[in-house]
Amino acid sequence: GRRGTMGGGKKRLAVEFDQINDENIGQLRVINQACFPVKYTDDFYKEIVAQKSMELSKFAYVNGSVVGAICCRVEPIPGANRNRLYIMTLGVLAAYRSFGVGSQLVESVLDFWEDSNSNKDIETPFQQAMKTVDEIRLHVQTSNKDAMDFYIDKFGFVQGELVQNYYKRIDPPHCFILYKKLR
Amino acid sequence: MASIDPNKNPQTGMGRPLPKKEADLFKSVIKFYETKMYKKGLKSAEAILKKFPNHGETLAMKGLILNCIGRRAEAHELVKLGLTNDMRSHVCWHVYGLLHRSDRNYNEAIKAYKQALRIDTDNLQILRDLSLLQIQMRDLSGFALTRHTILNLKPNQSLHWLAFALAKHLTGDNEGAVSVIDCYLNTLDANCREKQRGFESSELALYRFEILLETPNMEQAALNYLEKCKDLVVDITSWKFARARCQLTMGYHEDARQSFLSLFRRGSIEDYRVHSGYMCAILHLDKDMCEYSLKLRGGNTVATTLPLNAGQRKILLDAYTNELGAIFPSSAAVARIPLTLMEGEELRQSMDKYCRQNLTRGVPSLAQDLRSLLLVRCDTTNGDKTSSIKKCYAAVKDPVDVKQHPVTLLITELSDSYLQSLISKNTFPGSDIEESPSTLLWTMYFRAKLHALCGEFEEGLEWVEKCIDHTPTCVDIYELKGRLLKLSGDIDEAADCLDYGRNLDLQDRYINNKTAKYLLRANKETVALERISLFTKDEGNLDQHLFSMQCIWYELEVAACYARRGEWGKALKKYTAVEKHFDDFHEDQFDFHSYCIRKVTLRAYVDVLRFEDKIWGHIFYRKAAEGLVKSYLYLHDNPSAASVNADEPKYSEMTAAERKKVKAAARRKKKSAEKESQVKEGADGQSTNNSVVIDEDPAGELFLKRDPLEEANKYTNTLVNNAPDSLSTWILRYDVAIRRKKLLMALQALYKAKAIEPNNTLLFTRIVDFASKCFPDDSCPLSVREVISSQTKSLLGGKTVLEFVCEARNRALEDAKCSLDTRLAIAKTLVSTGAGAPADASVLVLDGGVHVRNATVDNCKEALNYFSDLGLEEEKSKW
Question: How near does any CA of chain B get to the CA of A67, in Å?
Answer without folding.
Answer: 7
